[in-house]
Automatic annotation (TrEMBL):
It is found in: Cell membrane; Early endosome membrane; Late endosome membrane; Lysosome membrane. Residues 820-829 have a biased composition (Acidic residues). PROSITE patterns: CBS. Residues 791-839 are annotated as: Disordered. GO terms for molecular function: ATP binding; chloride:proton antiporter activity; voltage-gated chloride channel activity. It is a multi-pass membrane protein. Its main location: membrane. The keyword Ribosomal protein does not apply. This is Chloride channel protein. It comes from Lynx pardinus. Pfam families: CBS (PF00571), Voltage_CLC (PF00654). Strongly outwardly rectifying, electrogenic H(+)/Cl(-)exchanger which mediates the exchange of chloride ions against protons. The CLC channel family contains both chloride channels and proton-coupled anion transporters that exchange chloride or another anion for protons. The presence of conserved gating glutamate residues is typical for family members that function as antiporters.
Amino acid sequence: MDASSDPYLPYDGGGDCIPLRELHKRGTHYTMTNGGSINSSTHLLDLLDEPIPGVGTYDDFHTIDWVREKCKDRERHRRINSKKKESAWEMTKSLYDAWSGWLVVTLTGLASGALAGLIDIAADWMTDLKEGICLSALWYNHEQCCWGSNETTFEERDKCPQWKTWAELIIGQAEGPGSYIMNYIMYIFWALSFAFLAVSLVKVFAPYACGSGIPEIKTILSGFIIRGYLGKWTLMIKTITLVLAVASGLSLGKEGPLVHVACCCGNIFSYLFPKYSTNEAKKREVLSAASAAGVSVAFGAPIGGVLFSLEEVSYYFPLKTLWRSFFAALVAAFVLRSINPFGNSRLVLFYVEYHTPWYLFELFPFILLGVFGGLWGAFFIRANIAWCRRRKSTKFGKYPVLEVIVVAAITAVIAFPNPYTRLNTSELIKELFTDCGPLESSSLCDYRNDMNASKIVDDIPDRPAGLGVYSAIWQLCLALIFKIIMTVFTFGIKVPSGLFIPSMAIGAIAGRIVGIAVEQLAYFHHDWFIFKEWCEVGADCITPGLYAMVGAAACLGGVTRMTVSLVVIVFELTGGLEYIVPLMAAVMTSKWVGDAFGREGIYEAHIRLNGYPFLDAKEEFTHTTLAADVMRPRRNDPPLAVLTQDNMTVDDIENMINETSYNGFPVIMSKESQRLVGFALRRDLTIAIESARKKQEGIVGSSRVCFAQHTPSLPAESPRPLKLRSILDMSPFTVTDHTPMEIVVDIFRKLGLRQCLVTHNGIVLGIITKKNILEHLEQLKQHVEPLAPPWHYNKKRYPPSYGPDGKPRPRFNNVQLNPIDEEREETEEEVHLLNSTTL
């Protein structure tokens, strides 16, 4: 499928984000370089030239330079500190700058908590709207409608005169086949209406509002620019459509998209503070704190949110960002608790507390649940990625509205007959987590009272399962199969869709089934040696709800490969320190089993599928290739385009910009010397030349462009030269051609580089960009690893800069023009080695 025909694939827009699926179409001659890095002290002290507006900014779908952004922030901080003692106004500006970080995370937390409460309330109301309506107060959901009724019985607490089903309103029947069919039809009608409205709003107003958002958030936090992804339109449409998507009954959750919503809030508020609006690296510190706030309101887990931001999404996480993330999560949780959207004085719907301890034998079924979670995660990742890849490569992907309607229709038709699939997924998890008490009327708690028990140790001892429990188990088995299949096809459609809740629901269903099985095994065989020591007759030994919680954590861990943050999130959900060991055992088992089939989590898999320029710090580079094997240009590529520091005119530079697609150019001393001077960005060159033509008199096409500190002497009749030293990066990162790629990849990951130059004895040979590394890693993953030539062969590939006569070899743009007679001809084996290293 042509990417340009799909409005949801805007990632081919240029820059260094060329989707890997498109690389074979570009050929080996396509090179895209990225901007420079930290400016040297010479550049920082060169204050004679007036700053040029727009220089130092980034185009859409490009990667930021972390080192240069940190340098800009340090320079801004020094400038503010040097002026704060001059006047009271400067002191006020200094204090405002110092406190702006806390202000922006406070505003982000307030907005995230308020929007999460609004989404929770609206989603609950619209979910119940599929079944009926409250006549006494239209804005009440089913539970709220029956709160004040005096005619509600304990057995039928969900029935009251104020709440009317659609069958009662339309045909006047509350029971019977006609009532069932009418409620069935209305359920499907509302589900399709909500789904159609959600996908239509996304397609028309904000294509970026679809999906989970976490893969893109991870990519943005790694330094990538996606204009509009965190904008106000995306925030508004995602908030509205998230409510519609959850209410439609699709197998998705709102927890993942809440991270996207919180990051939108953080991005919008960061523009109120110059400290963050003008610095992309500082802005990403705010986004890290916002992602913590998003998880905090999604699960009611402030500490888990901070750890989630640290473990899963953040690329750069200094200590002060840890404090501000904690504060943002605290504020967001406080606001959500004040709103109290569920009416239970809790931050989430499925908060539970257990009072029965776990025993050592139970670690075995807990580990089995971890194995199931790892297998489910591996299956889901492979199946979902295969389906998403098929969607992108076939005509089916051209009709996103039709796809959503079909998935919603199938989900609604199959879900309605089963009470556990008809339930909202969060309510299903709540029912599965809840332990059976004296006030529970669920069929999962339909146990038979054992009147022959000799003694009763606990108030509610383990009892034999009744018909209701066996019926519920069969329904849960069908619900498990349904959830597994539909989640594979739902995640990735063009509506806001989170993965946390569906994965937890699958694990909770499996865990509850296993918990009931273990409970009945302990009841009927309490004399077995594994039960005899700790489970006596009449005691409450097994808690099936605990198994559901452990299964939910295991399945979510198998899909996302989270560990520490996941355990803390689930611990905060239950409020029990006593169950951390079972959770840790299940989560680590699920991660080990999942890693046996592939080390990628679902978010990393979608990042790779979409071709985002993301270098995962978790991956290990164990190959033996060198920088010379990855750099551009290659032997058969066009020559490397370079600039000289004082020998080119404005027309020469503009022609080079127009004739090439590179985003940066190395600057050398001269064609004869070839020594590196610095690196100039394409965008900065274009802006600087346009600004000079408008503001400086005498700048024409034949004007000499000077990157040197001192302007060379020119004839008197020459036009005025153009000094562009202020836009030159005087200290670009360089590596030699023999540097192992393991070190180069490590440098790119830890310093956040966009490119580095490759030199040989100080002579510029080529350039390695982030895109080149991603191409190389992708080819290694496809088991087409380039052969690593021996070290002496690499020395022969780059002849000395000077010939036998002592004169420099003739070069153009740093690439050898004439063949070197002194070097022997390459053998067939060497040619094969060289060709095999070409990406």
